[in-house]
Amino acid sequence: MEQTLMIIKPNAVAKAEEIIGRVKQEGFTVRQTKTLSLTSQEAKEFYAVHRGKPFFADLVRFMDSGQIVVALLERRDAVTYLRKTVGATDPSEAVKGTLREIYGASKTQNAVHASDSLANAKREIEFFFNNS
Ligand code: CMP
What we know:
The structure is a single chain. With 132 residues, this protein is α+β, with helices and mostly antiparallel strands. It is built from 6 helices and 4 strands, in the order βαβααβααβα. The protein has one domain: Alpha-Beta Plaits. The chain is 38% helix and 21% strand. The protein starts with a strand and ends with a helix. Bound molecules: adenosine-3',5'-cyclic-monophosphate.
C-alpha cells in the first residue's frame, strides 16, 4: 500500500464530504483528515518548488484565503491513481468525471491538489501530519 496527500482547496471545501466520498469510491482508504488554514508563510513553504513562477503570488494568495481540508490517503499506486482521479491542472482541460473537471473553476482555483511523486507525497504528508 502506498500513501499520498490530497488537499481540498478553499473553493471546494464546501464540497469536501462529497469529494472524499468520490475518492473512497475510487478505492482509497482515508487514514487522516484535517481542516486548517495556511498562513501566507506556510503556503509559500508548501509550494516552494513553484517560487519564481508567474502564478506563484496568485497561488499563495488563494491558498491562504480560506480553510483547506488535507487528507492522507492510502491505496495501491496511490500517487499515480490520485493524479488520475484529480485530473489536469486546468479544469477546462481535465477529463470528464475527474475532480478538477467537476469542482475546479480555474488553474489557480482548481479545487484539489495531489502529490506528484512518491518523494513529494512523503514530504507533503510530513508537512501536515508530522506523526506519519
Ligand atoms: P497544484 O496541484 O496545487 O500544484 C501547484 C498549483 O499551481 C497547481 O495545482 C495550480 O493551482 C497552480 N498552477 C500550476 N500551473 C499554473 C498555471 N500555468 N497558471 C496558474 N496556476 C497554475
